[in-house]
C-alpha cells in the first residue's frame, strides 16, 4: 500500500515535469523551432484544428520558420491565427508559403523571458509539493486508521520527501538550462 502511494506520487511528479518541459518549449529563444507553433489552432472548415494538421511547418534557416498550408484557402486563417497568437511574429506571405522571420531577442526581452521561465519553474515546483502533500495526507490517514504503523508512516514520508527533492532538482536543472539557452546570443 505504501509503495503504491510512492509510485503514484512519483508518476504524478513526472507528469508535472513533462508539463513544465512543454511550457519551456513554448518560450522562444533566438532560434527558429517548429514547436513554437505547436499550441496554435486554426479554424479549418469551422473546426479548431492544430496548425500542424492544416499545414507543414518547417525551419528555413536559424531565424526563419516556413508554414506551407495543405490548401491554398487556408493561408488567410493561418495568418490570422499567427497574428492573434502570443508569439509576437508578423507573417510574410509569398504565394502559398508563409514565412515567419524571428527577430533577434533584445537583452530586455531575454530578461523578461528568464522571468517567465522562473515563474513556470515555480509553478512546477508548487505542483510537485502539492503532490507530496497529498501523498503525506494519505499516509497520515492510513496511520490514523491503524492500517500502517507510525514508524512506517515516518519512513514513507522520508522517502516521499526524497522523491520530491529529486523532482524539484530536475525542475531547477531544466530551468537553468533554458535560462542559459536564452542568454546565448
Essential attributes:
four-stranded antiparallel sheet, 185 residues, Topoisomerase I, Chain A, domain 4, alpha+beta, single chain, two-stranded antiparallel sheet, 2 domains, elongated
Q: What does this entry look like structurally?
A:
The chain is of the alpha+beta class. The chain has two domains: 1-27 and 106-183, Orthogonal Bundle (Topoisomerase I, Chain A, domain 4); 34-101, Gyrase A, domain 2. 58% of the residues lie in helices and 16% in strands. It contains four helices and six strands. It has helices at 2-26, 75-84, 107-144, 150-183, and strands at 41-44, 47-50, 55-61, 64-69, 92-94, 97-101. The strands form two sheets. Strands 3-4-6-5 form a four-stranded antiparallel β-sheet, with helices on one face. Strands 1-2 form a two-stranded antiparallel sheet. Helix 1 (2-26) packs antiparallel against helix 3, helix 1 packs parallel to helix 4 (150-183) and helix 3 runs antiparallel to helix 4. The relative contact order is 0.17. The mean pLDDT is 87.
The tally of helices reads 4
Give the biggest sheet. Answer: 4 strands, antiparallel
Would you tell me which CATH topology of the largest domain applies? Topoisomerase I, Chain A, domain 4
Number of domains: 2
- Helical content stands at 55-70%
Level-2 CATH architecture of the largest domain: Orthogonal Bundle
User: Strand share of the residues?
Assistant: 15-25%
Question: What is the CA–CA distance across the termini?
Answer: 51 Å
Shape: elongated
Computed structural class? alpha+beta
- Radius of gyration (Å): 22 Å
H/E order of the elements?
A: HEEEEHEEHH
Strand tally: 6
In order across it, which strands form the biggest sheet?
3-4-6-5
Amino acid at each position: 500500500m505504501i509503495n503504491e502511494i510512492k509510485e503514484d506520487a512519483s508518476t504524478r511528479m513526472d507528469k508535472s515535469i513533462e508539463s513544465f518541459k512543454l511550457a519551456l518549449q513554448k518560450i522562444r529563444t533566438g532560434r527558429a523551432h517548429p514547436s513554437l507553433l505547436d499550441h496554435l489552432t486554426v479554424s479549418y472548415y469551422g473546426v479548431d484544428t492544430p496548425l500542424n494538421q492544416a499545414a507543414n511547418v518547417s525551419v528555413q534557416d536559424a531565424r526563419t520558420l516556413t508554414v506551407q498550408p495543405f490548401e491554398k484557402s487556408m493561408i488567410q486563417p493561418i495568418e490570422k491565427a499567427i497574428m492573434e497568437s502570443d508569439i509576437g511574429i508578423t507573417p510574410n506571405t509569398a504565394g502559398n508559403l508563409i514565412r515567419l522571420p524571428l527577430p533577434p531577442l533584445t537583452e530586455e526581452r531575454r530578461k523578461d523571458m528568464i522571468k517567465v521561465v522562473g515563474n513556470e519553474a515555480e509553478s512546477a515546483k508548487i505542483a510537485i509539493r502539492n503532490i507530496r502533500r497529498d501523498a503525506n495526507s494519505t499516509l497520515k490517514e492510513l496511520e490514523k486508521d491503524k492500517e500502517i504503523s507510525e514508524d512506517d508512516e515516518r519512513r514513507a514520508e522520508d522517502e516521499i520527501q526524497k522523491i520530491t527533492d529529486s523532482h524539484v532538482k530536475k525542475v531547477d536543472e531544466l530551468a537553468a538550462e533554458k535560462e542559459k539557452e536564452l542568454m546565448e546570443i
